[in-house]
C-alpha cells in the first residue's frame, strides 16, 4: 500500500559530488507499476549534444543497495531535439518513467544526466522510507 503522506525530497547524490538536479514528480509518492512524469531541471555547463543520457534508477536501502526493476535509460536527444544549445543556462526536461511494480515501501531513487564524455550534467537522489520520522519543520519567523 502506498502512503499518501510521503513526500519525495531530492537532494545531492551520494557519490562524486555532481551538480544537483531539481526533480519534480507529477504524482508523489510514486505508484508501483504506474508511469510517472519526472521533471528534470538543472544548469548545463555546456551544450547538451547527441549521446547525452538520462537515467532513473530505483534501489533498495541498506549498506549494499541493489537495483529494483530495470533502470530507465534514455538518450536526451530522444526527449528533446539536439543539440540543445544552452551552455551556461537552465534547462527543463520531462520524461515519463515506468515505476517498478515490485517497488517496496522503502527505497531510493537516483536520477542523473551525463554528457557523452561520461561527465555529469547533474544528479539527484531521494530516500523514501515511511518508517523514518521526518524532521520537524522550523517555526516560521513572525512577520510582526
**CATH class type:** Mainly Beta
Taking the alpha carbons of the first and last residues, their distance comes to 44 Å
Average pLDDT metric: 88
The SSE order reads EEEEEEE
Provide the gyration radius in Å.
16 Å
Uncertain stretches: 135-144
Supply the CATH architecture: Sandwich
Shape: globular
The strand line-up of the biggest sheet is 4-3-6-7
CATH topology: Immunoglobulin-like
Per DSSP, the total helix count is: 0
Category from helices, strands and their pairing: mainly beta
Percent strand equals 25-35%
Main sheet makeup: 4 strands, antiparallel
- What's the number of domains? 1
Number of strands: 7
- The share of residues in helices is under 10%
Detailed description of the structure:
- With 144 residues, this protein is mostly beta strands.
- It has one domain (22-128): Immunoglobulin-like.
- The protein is built from no helices and seven strands.
- The protein has a four-stranded antiparallel sheet, with no helix packed on it. A three-stranded antiparallel sheet has the order 1-2-5, with no helix packed on it.
- A hairpin with a 5-residue loop joins strand 6 (107-114) and strand 7.
- It starts with 21 loop residues before the first strand and ends in a 16-residue tail after the last strand.
- The model is unreliable at 135-144 (pLDDT under 50).
Amino acid at each position: 500500500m502506498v502512503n499518501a503522506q510521503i513526500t519525495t525530497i531530492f537532494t545531492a547524490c551520494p557519490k562524486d559530488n555532481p551538480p544537483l538536479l531539481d526533480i519534480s514528480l507529477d504524482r508523489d509518492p510514486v505508484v508501483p507499476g504506474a508511469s510517472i512524469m519526472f521533471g528534470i531541471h538543472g544548469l548545463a555547463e555546456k551544450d547538451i549534444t547527441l549521446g547525452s543520457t538520462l537515467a532513473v534508477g530505483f534501489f533498495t536501502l541498506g549498506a549494499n543497495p541493489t537495483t529494483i526493476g530495470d533502470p530507465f535509460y534514455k538518450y536526451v536527444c530522444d526527449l528533446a531535439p539536439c543539440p540543445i544549445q544552452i551552455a551556461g543556462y537552465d534547462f527543463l526536461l520531462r520524461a515519463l518513467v515506468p515505476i517498478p511494480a515490485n517497488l517496496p515501501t522503502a527505497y531510493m531513487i537516483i536520477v542523473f544526466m551525463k554528457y557523452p564524455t561520461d561527465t555529469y550534467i547533474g544528479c539527484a537522489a531521494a530516500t523514501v522510507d515511511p518508517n523514518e520520522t521526518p524532521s520537524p519543520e522550523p517555526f516560521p519567523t513572525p512577520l510582526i
